[in-house]
Task: structure prediction
Amino acid sequence: MPDVSHALQPLGKKTYKSRLSATLKHIKRDRQLLILFIPCVAFYLIFRYGPLYGLIIAFKDYSVWNGILGSDWVGLKHFVKFFSSNDFILLFKNTLLLGFYALIFGFPFPIILAVLLNEVRLKWFKKSVQTFTYLPSFLSVVIISSMVIDFLSPSSGMINKLIAMLGFEKIYFLIMPEWFRTIYVVSDIWAHMGYEAIIYLAAIAGISPTLYEAARVDGASRLRRMWHITIPSILPTILIMLIMKVGNMMRIGYEKVLLLYTPTTYEVADVFSTFVYRKGLLETNYSYAAAVGMFEALVAMFMILSANYFSRKLGGKGLW
Amino acid sequence: MVGEAKISVLGIFTTIVLLIAAIVTLYPLVYILAISLSDTASVVQGKVWLWPEGLNFDAYMQVLKDNRIPKAYMNTVFYTALGTSINLAMTAIAAYPLSKSNFIGRKYWMFGIVLTMFLNAGIIPNYLIVQKLGLLDSVWALVIPNAIWTFELIILKSFYEGMSSQIREAALIDGASEFRILFNIVIPLSKPALASIGLFYFMGHWNSFFIPMIYLNDATMYPLQVVLRDMLIFSEGSGASLVDAQALAPQAKKNATIVLSMIPVLLMYPFVQKYFAKGVMLGSEKG
Result:
């Protein structure tokens, strides 16, 4: 046995050396590519990995004067403080519920839209409906929020005018906690339905026409063809989309929440990101906010990675 | 016969549902336009439903006279143009080495890049980096920290990979440098893909409000979206102000600003339709 290892050693060294020289050669060969790659590496190091390094302030009492390195270590103080505060349960609940409602109520709409669009024979009609329904995806969250506020306004809003016409009391939607989630979800559906339908439409476009022809010859009605061909054919796409959406559930459209919530609706509207924004940037409580943000990021990452895992298990492509 | 009847029932149902969908998405936009073109009295009395009442362009004149909004508009145009250019340049260059299967360390680079899609440090550490680099209150804070979107980078990389390698190899044999191949061959051949990811970048900058809101303190630097947001805060619905909202942010003026902010997006819509759907598809296939 010792003989063998003895005999192997020089060989090992040699391969190590030759590998090193091969690598150097490789670097030399790719030097132009490496130069082109410098900005990209610099960008990712500074602006993607830099903030990850900056997360250590979650374990310190960060002060602007002492900087990231000079501030005192405090261990898990901020985490303990957060987990033992009432905010923790509230934010977790709000974030998950908002994400969950947006998911279950929003999910079917793009599918229905795509399947129905596929049934339209008039080209111009199909094209117009598609054009109109995905226009809102190009509007900013500020514009969408502005429309929401306008439509729900107690004095001049369309909805309240209708309510008044029917003889009911006006509703102050935006300051009532019980309405917030509905408002968030409905405006979400309005804004994203057309955009997400594109993916299903493409999946439908990939269905072989021979399937439909065979079904027609067999006398299947359009409804039956829709039910037995279109839907089963796009089922894998639907499943993958569903898994991915579950994985992204924590990623709330916090910008919209920020624009639509008011102190009176915080109890249902406040999510991790909005809390981090208020604590960190408005109250300059950087370390505490960073700890909350870090917790959120970890939960979100766990969910996305699990979603990805299941997506691959089911034979779909993961996110990477 | 029964079959025929079923077909038309389904057809009618489909048409009605789709019409409702189109109307529901379109109506708020038409309403905003109508308000922006109506006279104040009709708006306040709530007479406007679909068409402008007392058609006039006063709200637009007010917007143009207000010294904040035209300035903000120019800011947005500038940030969007600069930001999109930087995005496209950075992405187009970064994707090239990654698209070469034998690029040294490619697997590790890709891993390091894709990993950042899952590891997100959050608002605060990002803010501190920007602050530390002295970028606060400058246009660079808006365009540099998001110079590359990983998703678009991967899309473009896949596009480069799908490109015929014959021309590139021929050029390489002819002694052309990688720089020349990239700038004279690969990038010109990638116009459709660049247009597609460029639209995503363009939309990102044009519609961005959170990033300028946290990185800019100087109100004269605000882009349109932040100014619009300030108009929202002062409007009654948000409950942030109990002062008479109509006086602070007249609905017509706000809506006129919204319409003006949508113009470039609407002008680009034909291109958007052509390239955006492609981009979405590339994204969903590759990712």
Residues 1-5, 236-249 of chain B have pLDDT under 50 and may be disordered. The two ends of chain B are 48 Å apart (CA to CA). Chain B touches chain A through 94 residues (CB under 8 Å). Residues 2-36 of chain B form the longest helix (35 residues).
